[in-house]
Specification:
Blueprint lengths: L1 E13 L2 E5 L1 E7 L2 E8 L5 H8 L9 E7 L4 E14 L4 E7 L2 E5 L13 E8 L9 E3 L14 E3 L4 E10 L2 E11 L8 E10 H19 L4 E13 L4 E9 L25 H6 L2 H11 L1 H13 L3 H23 L4 E2 L3 H17 L10 H10 L3 E2 L3 H11 L6 H16 L6 H23 L14
Antiparallel strand pairs: 1-2, 1-3, 1-5, 3-4, 4-7, 5-6, 6-7, 6-8, 8-16, 9-14, 9-15, 10-11, 12-13, 13-14, 15-16, 17-18
Helix pairs in contact: 2-5, 5-6, 6-9, 6-11, 7-8
Length: 462
């Protein structure tokens, strides 16, 4: 556990009530932010009401607002209590933060508070990125032609550039930036830097979409660890800082086992500028997410990579495929199809009801049999929606051809769902998993208009 700050004084708030405390510490443990606070032994109404008297301890957003010993302000939200102890001199309380810690420095002398709060740096955790900027060297001898045999391309840059159209309420604004490794050599995270600042408001519109987009490109979970904002910023050889720093509290992403279906780090694809090309599709990604909620699909793709066994992986992706197909059907097809019009069926339905009623006395009614029969008769005009048709509608919508392998996959889905059979051999199971994984990624890539390089995954089992 690493101590981050010493608290000089602070206030704990919950549901409009508050208690002051006189000392504490803020620490970080494997990515989680923890707080230890010392309250005076009396007049702790919140502690008495919600914890010491065994009432619900999680009945609201527990917040702490405090001042550090070096004169800076810190605000923490979504805290959960984990330990209390009491003595004659103090009450010690420990909390874990499930939200974020906001660290704010005073304005520098001579600076005024600006109307637009700026964001320049974003620290990303989980993103695996080999940078793609190069130095190209040409050798031209005096009085001779260019010698291409002596030309070299060195992948010697420590950054990757991009352009992205960020959503601004109802429109999109173009922003340029770059990714680079965190200046601190002990920190493995990637920094996203906007060359011209982004307002806090615009970042708020885009944060969820941008992180899901990066997770999809990465092939594994990406999360924001820190946002640098405010009115002044600095970048040194081994650190970044700003007036206000939001640090998100979550367990460190150690192994995300990213998929390389989009080979942004593949040595053979560096000249393809995959990262820059896919970023041009961010605007389309945002629009498609409003309809098909790719956030959920990307979540399942990432979770399947972390599952321990192949059965869990396949079932996770089957759920993702079912969910995506259902959402597409609800959006783009009529809810129910009928054999004949509802108005023409009404007199027929009435006649069927009257006929069945004549035999009601001989129909057992132990388990509501009469009503079940009546319901089935009244429903015979509704056409049942074939499950296979649902998937083909989704594939057509995403521009995926009905090949033999796609037809086989749809039939295999029936065996997985109804029989729990995902294959006879380990190779069959892995082949099915990779096929569904690739299919889901193709649906997203096709819908956002990406036509670039893709790297199908295969496994060889001897």
């Amino acid at each position: 556990m690493k101590e981050l700050h010493k608290i000089l004084e602070g206030r704990l708030s919950l549901n409009g009530e508050s208690n002051d405390f006189t000392f504490g510490t803020i620490s970080e443990d494997n990515g989680r932010i923890k707080v230890e606070a010392y309250f005076p032994p009396k007049d702790n109404s919140i502690l008495d009401k919600y914890w010491f008297n065994n009432n619900n301890p999680n009945s609201g957003n527990i917040e702490i607002n405090c001042k550090t010993t070096d004169g800076n302000q810190i605000y923490l939200d979504w805290l959960a209590p984990v330990h209390f102890s009491s003595s004659e001199t103090a009450v010690k309380a420990k909390f874990i933060c499930y939200g974020k810690m906001t660290f704010e420095k005073p304005l520098l002398e001579g600076l005024k508070e600006e109307e637009v709060e700026k964001i320049v740096f974003i620290e990303l955790e989980g993103l695996k990125l080999n940078h793609t900027e190069i130095t190209q060297k040409r050798v031209i001898r005096a009085n001779s032609n260019r010698n291409r045999d002596l030309e070299t391309e060195d992948w010697d840059k420590d950054y990757s550039t991009f352009m992205v159209n960020l959503i601004d309420k109802s429109s999109f604004l173009t922003h340029y930036g770059e990714f680079y490794n965190h200046p601190d050599p002990k920190n493995n995270n990637i920094i996203l830097e906007f060359k011209k600042y982004v307002s806090k408001e615009i970042f708020g519109y885009n944060q969820k979409h941008l992180i899901n987009f990066l997770s999809f490109i990465n092939g594994g979970e990406v999360r924001v660890r820190k946002v640098y904002r405010g009115n002044f910023f600095s970048r040194s050889e081994n650190n970044l800082s700003s007036q206000i720093e939001d640090t998100y509290s979550f367990t460190k992403i150690v192994d995300s086992y990213p998929s390389d279906y989009l080979p942004i780090n593949g040595l053979g694809y560096r000249n393809s500028s995959i990262l820059g090309t896919i970023f041009l599709r961010y605007q389309n990604f945002v629009k498609e997410c409003k309809e098909l909620d790719f956030q959920s699909t990307i979540y399942y793709l990432n979770r399947s990579n972390l599952n321990d066994n192949i059965e869990q992986r396949v079932f996770t992706l089957i759920v993702a495929l079912e969910e995506l197909g259902t959402r597409q059907r609800k959006l783009h097809t009529a809810a129910t199809k009928t054999v004949i019009s509802k108005s023409d069926f009404e007199p027929i339905k009435l006649a069927l009801k009257n006929t069945l009623k004549q035999f009601k006395s001989i129909i057992p009614n132990n388990n509501n049999e009469y009503n079940n029969l009546l319901s089935k008769l009244c429903d015979i005009n509704n056409q049942k929606r074939d499950t296979e048709e649902k998937f083909y509608e989704l594939f057509d919508y995403a521009g995926i051809s009905r090949t033999a392998s796609i037809t086989s996959l749809v039939k295999q889905r029936h065996m997985v769902v109804h029989e729990g059979n995902i294959g006879n051999s380990l190779k069959d199971k892995w082949d099915l998993y990779f096929q569904i994984d690739q299919l889901l990624r193709d649906i997203i890539l096709n819908r956002i208009g990406y036509r670039g390089v893709r790297n199908p995954r295969k496994i060889k089992i001897v």
